[in-house]
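Input/output pair, single chain:
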Amino acid sequence: MKTIQVVTNDVLGAVSQADIDSLSAAGKDGLAKLTNGTGLGNDFLGWVTLPKEITPALLDDINATAASLRDNCDVVVAIGIGGSYLGAKAVIEALQSNFAAFEPAKGCRVLFAGQNIGEDYLAELQAYLSDKKFGIIVISKSGTTTEPAIAFRILREQLEKQLGREEAGKRIVAVTDAARGALRTLANTEGYKTYVIPDNVGGRFSVLTPVGLLPIAVAGFDIHALVEGAAAMAKATLDGSNTLALKYAQTRNALYNSGKKIEILVNYNPKLHFLAEWWKQLYGESEGKDHKGIFPTAVDFTTDLHSMGQWIQDGERSIFETVLSVESSENELRIPFDEANLDGLNYIAGKRIDEVNKMAELGTRLAHVDGGVPNMRIVLPEISENVLGQLIYFFEAACGISGYILGVNPFNQPGVEAYKKNMFALLEKPGYEEATAAIRAKLG
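Output:
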């Protein structure tokens, strides 16, 4: 099996190997807390052993549901927010054609809703779906999270008007709590096909549950291979034969302790843009607590070298980069020779585009390291289901270990509730009368 690698040589100008090794005991303790369930947030550790617990029967059932949706729909809308959409979006965008949106549909297309409260977005989505055969995957433990609940109410009404209530119900799949919540109640009443979000798996760790697996399968990708990659990485991480997660967690915390407060995840392949978006949520929600934590951000190179490159090269030295480096591309395209050579490119005529991209990557890393920006590399042998499964589990495990090294609970997110309370009060939601009055007084 082709496996990912982690390379840390280019951080040693900012921290020493001794600095990294000094966190070895804390890192091993963090891994032990994951495996033994003895750390903060241990009621949300279901993802740790999830890959080996996903049964072939469940994967086959998900594939059968996905095939039914593809047979009956041109488009399937996956409704969810945060971890209920980012994992699936990341994998689908990494595996599909960059121009899938402009190609004739192969099976059916997966679109996303409920990840924002954009009026134009939803209106334009409704207009797009008005002459399409479409289905819905609605993902929510409670069924009351504002953004997906709004989207589901609107799109469910549209689907029922197009098909009638009974037929619409055959094209709606709910991924929700096993027994409780508004969406579970509705699904039971209407007879929707359902899948369960495990109680002990938080949203940002849920991509390897039906939350992510069903949309990925609908898009036509191999969820068996995705889970196999994750299972191989989980086994090697938990039995200690693969220390990549420890290496990454310890190195980034050593950099943080040295004053590097911002981590930039860099990719040189546009297919990985949403993988970085998923990573940002995973690490931001897990570590940003108690006024501590590395700030996770991301850039797409070489594109962003023409916008953010100046700041990264010469700005404040509070950053380090983690580069997603893909060894092989799926296609081969070479630069043609041009007799006139007006653009001056004949010196690279005959070279593959990927070779030019890799030299841009190497040149950028050298420049940034020389400019005082430490660099790590996570090397992916290819972009495939198996490798993405490995990468997902690697990042999840390293995130848990890193949070424990930092001294926070990596599995809660108390800070995300503050804006909701204010929003509900401003919208005069029942039960928030005192908060509404307090905000009105504050605003004058």
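The chain has a mean pLDDT of 94. The longest helix spans residues 385-406.
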